[in-house]
């Protein structure tokens, strides 16, 4: 991989979540940072403000395991696909891009946000939560998946496109709850689909 570093020896690096596709931050890298990233499997960058190498998460513990490095067509920008161990932003936010036009969320942000909500319900267990009720009763969750699958099938045969969309959303929600109840995530299912498509 031949990177075209600029006159300061730097290259912009977009950091993207391997599992969700969400952009976490934009930083800079140099030749040494790329070498260390490849050697350690964890993201290393160049801090322009501190003028030094930066092992992402070395202080906070929020390291980023690098799954792939990709170069753009001109060779002057890098994409790091990572599995973050915690928030990417120094503010404690999951991503550095948490201000600006946040509504409506982009389509690719919806399922990752839902999975974070399910994980929060599982951990925090708010009283009266339908999700917690489902997580505590795997048989009920399985029955709801079956029921919603029947409803989307019926809607596809007999009802409007809007009804199909709504029933499909119900299937996806209940299926994700079922997965989380088993300690699984959408990424686990996507890995199977990826393997099957090869």
From TrEMBL:
Superkingdom assignment: Bacteria
InterPro entries the record matches: His_synth_HisIE (IPR023019), HisE (IPR008179), PRib-ATP_PPHydrolase-like (IPR021130), PRib_AMP_CycHydrolase_dom (IPR002496), PRib_AMP_CycHydrolase_sf (IPR038019)
Major location category of this protein: cytoplasm
Pathway: Amino-acid biosynthesis; L-histidine biosynthesis; L-histidine from 5-phospho-alpha-D-ribose 1-diphosphate: step 3/9; Amino-acid biosynthesis; L-histidine biosynthesis; L-histidine from 5-phospho-alpha-D-ribose 1-diphosphate: step 2/9
Stretches for region Phosphoribosyl-ATP pyrophosphohydrolase: 111-198
E.C. number: 3.5.4.19, 3.6.1.31
Location relative to the cell: Cytoplasm
Matching Gene3D superfamilies: MazG-like, Phosphoribosyl-AMP cyclohydrolase
GO molecular function, a single term: phosphoribosyl-AMP cyclohydrolase activity
Catalytic activity: 1-(5-phospho-beta-D-ribosyl)-ATP + H2O = 1-(5-phospho-beta-D-ribosyl)-5'-AMP + diphosphate + H(+); 1-(5-phospho-beta-D-ribosyl)-5'-AMP + H2O = 1-(5-phospho-beta-D-ribosyl)-5-[(5-phospho-beta-D-ribosylamino)methylideneamino]imidazole-4-carboxamide
Region (Phosphoribosyl-AMP cyclohydrolase): 1-110
Domain called Phosphoribosyl-AMP cyclohydrolase: residue spans: 26-98
Keywords on record: Amino-acid biosynthesis, ATP-binding, Cytoplasm, Histidine biosynthesis, Hydrolase, Multifunctional enzyme, Nucleotide-binding
Record-stated family: In the C-terminal section; belongs to the PRA-PH family. In the N-terminal section; belongs to the PRA-CH family.
Protein name per UniProt: Histidine biosynthesis bifunctional protein HisIE
